[in-house]
């Protein structure tokens, strides 16, 4: 998967609030599927489908220990997305600075 395709997959995965909540939980540490499913009013099977999307996007890794399946966050794809977004943040900051200067000039011209 190319970086651009991976970014598309990450954005698609992040579009769902349940998946974002699962990532927020995993940012605090590894968890089993049952631990991840506990706070949601949906079935463990539905949570498992969300985990499949996150895993396909490269945002989580699942491991198996005996009968337990543990999940952990994989931060690299989020760093790629943050770098991509940062390019546009600089563009907008420059435009806001230009607008701020223009508005300051207008106020100075007011009697």
Q: Any descriptors?
A:
Arc Repressor Mutant, subunit A; alpha+beta; WH-like_DNA-bd_sf; 5 helices; ArsR-like_HTH; HTH_ArsR_DNA-bd_dom; DNA-binding; three-stranded antiparallel beta sheet
What does this structure look like?
The protein is built from five helices and three strands; from the N terminus they run H-H-E-H-H-E-E-H. It has one domain (6-109): Winged helix-like DNA-binding domain superfamily/Winged helix DNA-binding domain (Arc Repressor Mutant, subunit A, Orthogonal Bundle). The protein is α+β, with helices and mostly antiparallel strands. The model has no long low-confidence stretch (mean pLDDT 92). A three-stranded antiparallel sheet has the order 1-3-2. Helix 1 (3-14) runs antiparallel to helix 4 (44-56) and helix 1 packs across helix 5 (76-109). The chain has helices spanning 3-14, 17-27, 33-37, 44-56, 76-109; strands at 31-32, 60-65, 68-73.
Topology summary:
Elements: H1 3-14, H2 17-27, E1 31-32, H3 33-37, H4 44-56, E2 60-65, E3 68-73, H5 76-109
